[in-house]
Each structure stands twice: as C-alpha cells, then as structure tokens.
Amino acid sequence: MNKHELLLTLAKRVKELRNEKGLTQEDVYNDTGIHLGRIEQGKRDISFTTLCKLADYFGTDLNQFR
C-alpha cells in the first residue's frame, strides 16, 4: 500500500469512527482541538501524535486505523 492509499484508508476510518459515535466534526474539534475536515478528505497528512489523540478520544487503539 502506498502513502496515498494509506492516507485514504486512514481518512475513511477516522470518519467511520466519528460516525459510529454519532459525533460531528465540530464535536470532535470542541473536545480535542483537532480539525477533521481535511483529514477525513485524505487531503492532510496526519501526525503520529494526532493519530494517538484520536485513538484515545474514540476509545480505540492504533490498529483500528488500518
């Protein structure tokens, strides 16, 4: 899997996790300070730190983002 494909997979999974929790992008931003718009579109690379914060926020581990 190349970097672009991995980024799109990650973007899709972030959106799925958010929707499973019934949250809006604004909810996540208000709770974490993380803007999800460009992340969920696969247009913004995500740092490891941000990924860890999202995993904690969604109550999951990093393996769920694959």
From TrEMBL:
Cross-referenced Pfam families, in alphabetical order? HTH_3
User: What are the recorded GO MF terms, alphabetically?
Assistant: DNA binding
Name the InterPro entries for this protein. Answer: Cro/C1-type_HTH, Lambda_DNA-bd_dom_sf
- Say which species the protein is native to: Fluviicola chungangensis
Q: Which domain of life is it from?
A: Bacteria
Q: Where is the HTH cro/C1-type domain?
A: 14-65
The name on file for this protein is Helix-turn-helix transcriptional regulator
